[in-house]
Design goal:
This protein has 120 residues and is an alpha+beta fold. It contains three helices and four strands. It is globular, with a radius of gyration of 19 Å.
Length: 120
């Protein structure tokens, strides 16, 4: 006998949702970015940060409305960006590099691949 799908609807909001506060400059100030519901998961936010969708991120919050919690995820995101940049050899924009340096829980620096003198 096969497994029948549940008739109880899954709540699409019962997950971690990430929102980005972005600095738009002295005249416009900071604002929480308008985001499609489907683009608020961790992987998408990291991808959007790396691709330049957010020019000057300031703070990132995570929350789950169903479970009733929220937290500042800025440090976690900065650490994840530093890890991705180091692992995949990515170039971060100056603003994103400043975000990572200001918010990471550990020192951030990319090691350049330089040829060794005298190495064969």
């Amino acid at each position: 006998m096969g497994h029948a799908p549940s008739i109880v609807p899954l709540d699409r909001l019962d997950r971690e949702i990430y929102l980005v506060l972005e600095d738009f400059g002295a005249r416009a100030g900071c604002s929480w970015r308008e985001t499609d519901e489907q683009d608020t998961d961790l992987k998408t936010v990291l991808r959007d940060l790396l691709s330049g969708q957010y020019a000057y991120p300031v703070r990132i919050v995570a929350f789950n409305a169903i479970e009733g919690w929220s937290r500042d995820a800025t440090e976690d995101i900065a650490d994840a960006l530093a890890d991705l940049a180091a692992l995949e050899g990515l170039d971060l924009s100056p603003a994103l590099e400043a975000f990572v340096q200001a918010n990471s829980s550990r020192p951030f620096g990319l090691q350049l691949a330089l040829p060794l003198r005298g190495a064969a």
